[in-house]
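cache lookup: miss for this entity combination. No prior model stored, computing from scratch. Input as submitted by user K.M.:
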Amino acid sequence: MRIVVAFKWAADYQEASVNGSGEVDWSRARPVVSSYDAVAIEVARQIADAVSGEVIGLSVIGEPTVPSMATKTALARGLDRVVVVADETLNNASTTQTGEVLSRAIRQIGDVDLVLAGDSSIDVAAKMVSSIAAGFLGWPAFTDVGNVNVTHGSGVELTRPTAVGSETFTVTRPTVVALTADAVVARVPGMKDILAAGKKPVEQLSLASLGDLESVPYTVRGTSRPSHGARLQKVIDATDTSAAVKQLAGILRDAGVS
Amino acid sequence: MAADTWIIVAGQPGVKNLIEIARGLTGQVRALVVGTEDVADTIAAAGVDEVVWVRPDPDIPLEAYATTVQSVVQDNPGVLIGGRNPAERVLFGAAVATLGAPVFTGVSSVAADGDDVVVKHAAFGGITEQTVVISGPVGLVVDGGGLPEPGIAVAIEEIAAEAMNDVRVVGRSESTDEHADLASAARVIGVGRGLKKEEDLALIEELAQALKAEIGCTRPLAEGLDWLGRDRYIGISGAHIAPKLYLAVGVSGQLQHIDGVRGADLIVSINSDPRAPMTAEADYSLIGDLYKLVPALTSALSGR
Ligand SMILES: Cc1cc2nc3c(=O)[nH]c(=O)nc-3n(C[C@H](O)[C@H](O)[C@H](O)COP(=O)(O)OP(=O)(O)OC[C@H]3O[C@@H](n4cnc5c(N)ncnc54)[C@H](O)[C@@H]3O)c2cc1C
């Protein structure tokens, strides 16, 4: 069974800073393999170990060269090898472009039975890439998936929530699955894993080899700082509990919410 | 672009906000419904111009109708609007891929500008707002916002449902918890890890009763601690709410949580740490122990 795990080398938006006109500065934010993607790698490893399969990491990077930290960190978490599409023109690639590039790379890798991914990236956080990649592939996708088990051969059983509970499915064909951050507990790589990671294969696919992209580009006309961030920020001293709650009760009453 | 709009509906009809955004654009509003006849009926009366209905086989997941969705929107590209639930995102993603349309989440406004579409949306988890211009198809992910107001129904055009092979439903479970409807609640109490034990939720329930509020929570309480259902956690990966009052109790106020409460009119925080990020995200903050403040507030509100 051949499993591809799509992972993103990105920084958490909470570490970015934003200036008065809404421009985001990522320079001091440190890229990582996010906790979501670490979970996807762990699930893939556990499945592959159970059926003696192969786990291939796949990442799209908007830089001309692949940062070795990116591949090493991901490999140390249990991937067998990594395939990277690194190209400067993919810097700030749209969610749809990323999904399209992933789908092309998955086709190029070939014979893929299962694609796993984290449910969200930690920088853009649109939660759409896996569904879009599946759309380009013409494969079914499932998101918010809490667990995946191999049933027979390369078929999987998986569960995802509904408004009232959950549904469990069997899928006996290639599919894309986006996992929640608590699907399993990801291992913490040890010294041995980190050393071994340096020796595992890293393959770079050129963007050109994947053919022309169909995704429609867009332009950013401007940015602004979110106005709803402007809260009153008033602090009520609560050393005197009853005075504090009385004051708050009054505020709630005046605002018409109690 | 004077193109038409497709609303992709998957399994549930709570798409009020999607219809509202679509109505703000020029062109026809079409809904593509993958769901039961009830869902199709509700959407047909929700103020759209046209309903195309795919009746799914109950033994096949909604997600397996992705190719049917693709063939419908392909013949009629325009603006695509989808919701945030799991099956909604999958069918919407398939539609988006077919048209190669860029997608935007956290949309606050959309307008036609000549042949272009201008979208204002919260980017990077809401730390900034971007105005983007697209001359071609575009996809918008919008919070459902509950059931649309019923009006005069339009005709429903049922089309042949062709699901992908080799995908089956093998089990369904309904959680025994009461289903939370945070999205339409006027008052929401959000509880965080400041609460020490599951039993202490009783304190919050009493306050919720006094305030006639729904109870929501931060992610750790729903995923991990499992004290509350997953439908109760608020934030970028959970519910997005827009109540009159959001009262955060023992919530640190990380951006991922705050992303879900930006639509609140009034935000109040109860937190023992004055440096908690929540203080900057709130209109009023009571700095103190929730174990003292919550029961006292319950009494004050009940007029005792
Ligand atoms: C990719 C990603 C996505 C995420 N998505 C979400 C999401 O959608 N929603 C979400 O909520 N989180 C999300 N998180 C998690 C988020 O980053 C925070 O970890 C989480 O919101 C913190 O929850 P908390 O405020 O309950 O806990 P903590 O951060 O532990 O805060 C507890 C607070 O309680 C206060 N406190 C403690 N004791 C008392 C007391 N006796 N009285 C009063 N106050 C007290 C403390 O001062 C503290 O501020 C996400 C994280 C990641 C990485």
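stored under new cache key. Chain A has a mean pLDDT of 93.
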